[in-house]
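Think of the structure tokens as a kind of shorthand, similar to the way a musician reads notation: each symbol stands for something richer, in this case the local conformation of the backbone. In the example below we present two proteins back to back. Begin with the first one, reading the sequence and then the tokens, and try to describe in your own words what changes along the chain.
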Amino acid sequence: MIDLHTHSLASDGTDTPGELINKAHASGITVLGLMDHDTVAGWDEATMYLRPGMSLVLGSEISCQTLDGTSVHMLGMLFDRDNSALSEVLATTRDNRLTRMNRIIARLNEAGYEISIEDVLAQLAPGATLGRPHLADALIAKKLVASRDEAFAELLHNNSKYYISHYSPTPEDAIKLIKQAGGVAVIAHPLASLRGRTINIESFKSMVEAGLDGIEISHRDQSEDERELLREVVARYGIIATGSSDYHGNGKLNELAEFTTKPEDFEALETRADARRVVRK
């Protein structure tokens, strides 16, 4: 089984990279993608724990924003981690997450929610990428909500009055950076309407022109109608369809390998990188 989109404690997952590898192995996954948000911090540990017979696709889920303010997540896979241009953008995005978090907290405080940045940072693993799930965990610890799901449903979703975007490249710029770093670009859950605003179908044209390699179609947050629209986009532009769990450990209901990528589609993706970077044991 091939699951190309998972998260660890290096961003907003709840498993260490090593624990994630062990769980993936126990689940029968043969190819695992580690896509922590805006970071490569979990790569080394995941590689160290890789089990015989498993392959590891290293990458990052890069936060993007369209010119009209729609949030987009771009999976950069199999890129050169030493590429300076991409590394700088990831670092800038991470740094701006702290400013954004303080502004969200200020809005929550104004509404009567007693929460502080210190409460949020207490939920953050060393070196992890700060995100809204850590704010959700802080709200749980303060007994202001019961779960991450409740926190996002009531307070932290993209259409919430408390939501604030942060610095991020456009999807097209992110794709170009990934390609310049020798990697593969796959847009994650682009029509997941339950998450908030989604991109216009016609906007795929500019992303394909920038070098988009594939679309994550099979994902629990996209309806069958949404998946069918995306299959039409894949067919129109001759790009690659993927399916993934978007597993976050205990932070979300998503289960490892609940959606997977076909072997032939993964092979087609791998050939689009400029070097063989899949880690194998």
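Once you have a description of the first chain, move to the second and do the same.
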Amino acid sequence: MKILLENIKELIQVVEEPLHFRAGVQMSTLNTIQNAFLIIRDEVIEEFGRMDQLKDKYMDDDLLIEIDCTNRLVYPSFCDSHTHLVYCHASEKNFTDRINHFSVDRINSQKVEILNSARQIHEISEEDLYNIAIERIIDVMKMGTGAIEIKSGYGLNTEDELKILRVIRRISEDSPVCVRSTFMGSQVVPPKYAANISKYVDLIINEMIPQVAADELADFIDVFCDKGFYSQYETDRILMAGIKYGLRPKIHANQHSISGGVQVGVKYNSLSVDHLDYIGDEEIELLKDSETMPTILPGPSFFFNQSLSPVRKMIDAGLPVALASDYNPITSPGGNMSFISSLGCIKYKMSPQEVINATTLNSAYAMGVSDSLGSISKGKIANLFITSDAAGIESLPYHFGSNMIETVIINGEVQTFQFQH
């Protein structure tokens, strides 16, 4: 089947040559085509260009759907490279308590809420957990996300970690969105192991990781290497074990302090190091010489009104930056990547061009899919969205309270959000 998008006001993030990510000053580079067309054949982008280049040779006997994009922008779909989307219930009560200053210790409060989420996971059936999670997938698709990474971490024992990962696999099978799965049994230390953390690390290494690998339930492995969570040494042990089973590392690092997580991540060639609310010159220099994507999560910083990562310093030093939602019930209860883009501009002083690179091309790299997603390129999978009437690329971050996404196309198909599950 063929789809023709015509009269596009501006086609965004056009990449003609293979490109995995943009870094430093190049993050301000954004190629667009005004008054454009785009042709999709089956599930891939076949052709695009200016409307005056659209000729009869692009029209054939294939079924052709035409979509008029007058006054509309066309983007590659957002790639959300860091979420914890599979959880039971939101934490509104804790939110109210925090507003009323009942919980002032942010680290311990976060750990308590993770343990509460783990208890809920233990009690819910796998089917009910799936039904809750698939609705969230539909919601983020409507808001322009076409690829998403989802972590476990609310299980904290072998059975429940596997339950979450099986739900993630089923989401990948049932929904059109591109899904990558991350095993994160090391999010917090369960209370029964508080006096002997190494015993829980042994459980992760000797039992959880082998079962995750045997069932092919994860692409990546993640550890929360930070103050009050896991040390560099413990992180080192877990990542080394994961690598032996074919799981590439990703790291939670430096949300609460400079923790050494960046150093461990670079040592093991982590695909990304995420959070980075605290980062120094040493970490910046290490990342410059690595293949690891620094990934900033504006959601928790906004939600808790906490320190902001020094994004301008990082970009000015020559680093690439990705942005992701960190969709989870505790610190970032939402997966609206347009809002994350707004935070990137408003709070982190990123330009709209930098934000687009950070939420498409760079974030695709941060979840290992930049070869097939993240830009408007011939041969890439046709995951994209069409805005409503828009003045230009400033419109999405400017209208931070609105959903300007009018049409979503995933795998070359216009989405009705009524897929079977």
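Compare your description with these statements about the second chain. The domain at 2-76+375-414 is CATH 2.30.40.10 (Urease, subunit C; domain 1).
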